[in-house]
Amino acid sequence: MPDAPSPDPQDLAHRRRLAAWAGATRRLADGPVSGTLAQRLARLADEAPSAYDLDDWTDVYGDGVVAALERRTADLLGTEAAAFFPSGTMAQQVALRCWADRTGNRTVAMHPLAHPERWERDALTQLTGLRVVHPTSAPRNPTGDEVRDLAEPFGTLALELPLRDAGFVLPDWDELTGAVAAARDRDAVVHLDGARLWECTAHYGRGLPELAGLADSVYVSFYKSLGGLSGAALAGPASLVEEAVAWRHRYGGQLFQQWPAALSALVGLDRELPRLPEYAARAKVVAAALREAFGGGAGGAGGSGSAAGPVPWFRIGPEVPHTHQFSVWLPYDAEVLTEASVRLAEETGTVLFRGWSDAGPPGVAVAEVTVAAPGLAWTAADVAEAAAGFLARVR
């Protein structure tokens, strides 16, 4: 009888991390894949009755609960219509190719850190034949002048709000409206990559319809910010959404049934959306406490710690979080920091950070911090205690 294959070390490490996160009693937010299959099913069964009539029939190719989610999304964003997509990647590819056909220009202006450029394996060029130009490479969204001065014509300006890979950063209102106005001056349409648009209202002090109304179309995610299982929506004029639905079918996105994702999205709209401003306020407390813990108050957002500070250099960005998410950079290898994070969870039951990834320069790693309902109970002292325990395990 042949020997059983040896366990995959990467799989074992992944399962160890999941077990550590799941077993922790203190965390800033529930993870996007927290819980076993049984736990997730039980949670959905418990929460869904308050969001939708479970005596209704399951959806078939987008009717029923999926159609109800589309109507609610359009109402929340103040758009004529919205279409549910199984992924944001598909939703944005469809939106951008529709605008290219309508404008007659297949060039899209977007940031090099935007999701389609970083995480979609060149899908825009490989699948749609679109071409991308960059108004800026600075770690922020482009200014009006940068959009206006772009050296070649473009049909669509795509803005990611917030710009995740720069640290979940948002432009101020004048910068945002200036970039939109510059695109209009160049006869271009504006598309918002609003995967996390739900989080932006507190920063701007403006409602979702005003934010979405800046653009010709907007994509929103149902699992980012809202804790749904999966799925996204493309919202905008009814004629655009109708065209997008045809392309959704061609892309293989007209799934037979999607009721688990749709139900969890409705739950997120009910439970999480109203609380996002509260989470954003707590994230400011957490970021300030981490800054103090890492640098004794002297390190700031992008300097070194004090002479007696716990780390030689760090960065927390934005210095004051714009949403309920922000990024932390530390001068250690990602593997070292991830191991310290896992050990903190295993040994103390506290999750401060989850995974770390290499940030570019050798020996520098970055982690994303999300503050949600579990984090509302954390005080600055709690953050300081967790940070001290984490740093002790780094060393």
Task: Please describe the structure with a list of short key phrases separated by commas or semicolons.
single chain; 395 residues; alpha/beta; Aspartate Aminotransferase, domain 1; 2 domains; 4-stranded antiparallel sheet; 15 helices
3D architecture notes:
The chain folds into two domains: 9-41 and 275-394, Aspartate Aminotransferase, domain 1 (Alpha-Beta Complex); 51-271, Aspartate Aminotransferase, domain 2, CATH 3.40.640. It has 395 residues and is of the alpha/beta class. It has helices at residues 9-23, 37-47, 65-77, 88-103, 115-118, 123-128, 144-148, 173-185, 201-204, 208-212, 238-250, 259-271, 276-295, 334-348, 380-394; strands spanning 26-27, 81-85, 107-109, 131-133, 156-160, 189-194, 217-221, 232-236, 315-317, 325-330, 350-351, 357-358, 365-370. The chain is built from 15 helices and 13 strands. A seven-stranded mixed β-sheet has the order 2-8-7-6-5-3-4, sandwiched between helices. Strands 9-10-13-12 form a four-stranded antiparallel β-sheet, with helices on one face. Strands 1-11 form a two-stranded parallel ribbon.
Residue stretches low in confidence (pLDDT < 50, at least 5 long) are none
The main pleated sheet reads as: 7 strands, mixed
CA distance, first residue to last residue: 46 Å
N-to-C series of helices and strands: HEHHEHEHHEHEHEHHEEHHHEEHEEEH
Structural category is alpha/beta
Number of domains: 2
**How are the strands ordered across the major sheet?**
2-8-7-6-5-3-4
Helix content: 40-55%
From the 3D structure, determine the CATH topology of the largest domain: Aspartate Aminotransferase, domain 2
Task: Output mean pLDDT.
Answer: 93
What is the CATH domain class of the largest domain? Alpha Beta
Rounded radius of gyration (Å): 22 Å
